[in-house]
């Protein structure tokens, strides 16, 4: 005979499956509805109307993220960032200037203290240089796990991904279902060029990370990011000691 605890676990699982299927159905409808809409802002507006209070944007204060923050500043879309504890000082400065410029709340999420303490105690502060496995474990603790908390309760996750950033993103759709996080993802700038992004920032005089002017294209944690040389790939400055095809941190897993 099923016990009370087992019953509630079963009930919770059933409710979760129903919610997942319902959101997946909404995703299929959205794909059809947005297929004929070319304006990123119009799609963002549609998402806020369809899911009031259910959309969130993750920013790392890159050029792309500043553009999107400008696009969503007057929409019912929350914004959050992941503070890994190893960011550049310039990134923190951009965070402060962004908050002052847009006057919009930016929620911060951090690694679990005990989990991080255990990892660093056992492996040292810079074990990510030793192997891909160690680096991904560090990324999981500092970024992937906090992301789970940040996305909880939301139905739409808006990102600043662009196809130019990585070979893994060349065939990525602008609107996709994220199976791992059980959420709909929208990449409004997916097909924008670098020139379009930087020109938008310039025209609207948006605050930006000055490391971009020093050859830093993709900016993450300080120990894992370097400036790139002319002709190098966009992601060459991230985890430069690894194979180019393995350069993903686990935040964005294209299905």
UniProtKB/TrEMBL annotation:
Catalyses which reaction?
[thioredoxin]-disulfide + sulfite + AMP + 2 H(+) = adenosine 5'-phosphosulfate + [thioredoxin]-dithiol
Q: Which InterPro entries match?
A: PAPS/APS_Rdtase, PAPS_reduct_dom, Rossmann-like_a/b/a_fold
Q: Might you give the EC number(s) for this enzyme? A: 1.8.4.10
- Indicate what this protein is called per its UniProt record: Adenosine 5'-phosphosulfate reductase
Q: Which GO terms describe its cellular component?
A: cytoplasm
Where does the signal sequence lie? none
Gene Ontology biological process terms from the UniProt entry: hydrogen sulfide biosynthetic process; sulfate assimilation, phosphoadenylyl sulfate reduction by phosphoadenylyl-sulfate reductase (thioredoxin)
Pathway(s) per entry: Sulfur metabolism; hydrogen sulfide biosynthesis; sulfite from sulfate
Q: Which residues form a coiled coil?
A: none
For this UniProt entry, the molecular function terms from Gene Ontology, in alphabetical order, are: 4 iron, 4 sulfur cluster binding; adenylyl-sulfate reductase (thioredoxin) activity; metal ion binding; phosphoadenylyl-sulfate reductase (thioredoxin) activity
Q: Say yes or no: keyword Cytoplasm present.
A: yes
The active site consists of 249 (nucleophile)
Record-linked CDD domains: PAPS_reductase
Q: Name the keywords, alphabetized.
A: Cytoplasm, Iron, Iron-sulfur, Metal-binding, Oxidoreductase
Looking at the keywords, is Ribonucleoprotein present?
no
